[in-house]
Amino acid sequence: MVFEPKIVGFLCNWCSYAGADLAGTSRMAYAPNVRPIRVMCSGRVDPTFVIKAFLEGADGVLVAGCHPPSDCHYQEGNLKAMRRVPLLKKMLKQLGIEEGRLRLEWVSASEGEKYARVVNEFTEQVRALGPLDWKIPQPKGGKN
Amino acid sequence: MEKYKLAFYWASSCGGCEVAVLDIHENILKVIDIADIVFWPVAIDTKYKDVEAMKDNYIDVCFFNGAIRLSEQEHLAHLLRQKSKIMVAFGSCACYGSIPGLANFFYRHEIMNRAYLETPSTVNPQNILPQEVTKVKEGEITIPEFYDTVHTLGQTVEVDYFVPGCPPVPDQVMTLVEALDKKKLPPKGSVIAGDKTLCDTCERLREEKIVPEFKRIVEVIPDNEKCFLDQGIICCGPATRSGCGNRCINANQPCRGCFGPAPEIHDQGAKLLSAIASISAINEEERVEEFVNSIPDPAGYFYRFTLPYSMLKRKLIREEKK
């Protein structure tokens, strides 16, 4: 059986979510693996959101926002995501999560086609990495 | 008046917390006035069997320092919990895993190999590793099991109060002692420390934070009046709980985060990462790598005191294939 990765996508309200919507209304066919979550800005994507997604079963996390430098509705939220996501990748790698499981993309409201392409590419990339298979460590004797 | 019965125990820790109890100086006499010490392996000659012989809830307050790394420590945590009315996680190791918890960046076999085979000072031609059970002609001898993951005390047993700090400061100890004396204990689960971030209590001069370049503390001599972050030196103040008296800051050293996550947050490392990435001045996509490279060890730096307590708890252990 082919492994179908679960991917959580944090899409910014102003560009990328609209881009995903465009892909849908244009009836483009693309991988169904991304579960989109609309956030107001890619700069709102707290690293804890990404970690929580991985902990709760995601095999990959996509963060998509407005094109830098100046498309951001909040002027510099996307620039924060632009610095935060690569540093988070580096930190997660130290914790055993491959860098390829986290991806940052810029998708504008008119780029439905790009959104579909990014989702297809990323799905294949995570599929190649396989399931994350997180084993949450517990104290041996349980808790009392 | 009947005196309180206190117990102290150390698990995976350096012993600094034991000394920190004495940092309250002459106030120790006040403690002696209201309490007897019934178990304290560092200072008095009591044995585990003495604890086992106690009735449940015999001990009024148990100060437990250190993380849980060995089966012996886990056993004592359960035993002391059973015998104590109030269990206090004393110090950052018990609260958050702290420095011993950095072992969670490695797998058990890596730690064993490093400690017993690879270090340059090791001479071990037969590659002998510690075994839990060894047969000798007189019978079997055993040592505690070395777990693959360091846990916090709170992950192992119910904890009533958390006293963070590496080590805790005298004020925190006295807060607890006075609360006991006046019989006005804080609600269960309270953290005996400040209720703000360290930055909120910091008196250094702050400007708008736009940091062109992050530097390591070893590379610069910091200005002793300006905010460390404004100077490009990573300071853990934004995500760290206050209550330490800003000792490092006053000694012109940036905060290392030993008081653990600030109130209302859980994952100190992720929040610090977020804060540090926010204040960088690098706004060009092609220069982002420069920013990332300026922080050589983000996980080690941001989770220095809280890895076992964090959301991920340790380096990923993959589920064994069935």
Q: Look at the structure and give the CATH class of the largest domain in chain B.
A: Alpha Beta
CATH class type of chain A:
Alpha Beta
User: Strand order of the main beta sheet of chain B, please?
Assistant: 2-1-3-5-9
Largest sheet of chain B: 5 strands, parallel
User: Quaternary arrangement of the chains shown?
Assistant: heterodimer
Q: How many beta-strand segments of chain B? A: 9
CATH topology of the largest domain in chain B: Rossmann fold
- Rg of chain B computed from alpha carbons, rounded to a whole number of angstroms: 22 Å
Q: CATH homologous superfamily of the largest domain in chain B - what is it?
A: NADH:ubiquinone oxidoreductase-like, 20kDa subunit
The helix content of chain B is 25-40%
Radius of gyration of chain A: 16 Å
Roughly what fraction of the amino acids of chain B lie in strands?
A: 5-15%
How many domains would you count in the coordinates of chain A?
1
- Cα separation of the termini of chain B: 61 Å
Shape designation of chain B: globular
Q: SS-based structural class of chain B?
A: alpha/beta
Low-confidence stretches of chain B: none
Describe the structure concisely for a colleague:
The complex is a heterodimer of chains A (144) and B (322). Chain A is α/β, with parallel strands linked by helices. Helices cover 38% and strands 16% of the residues of chain A.
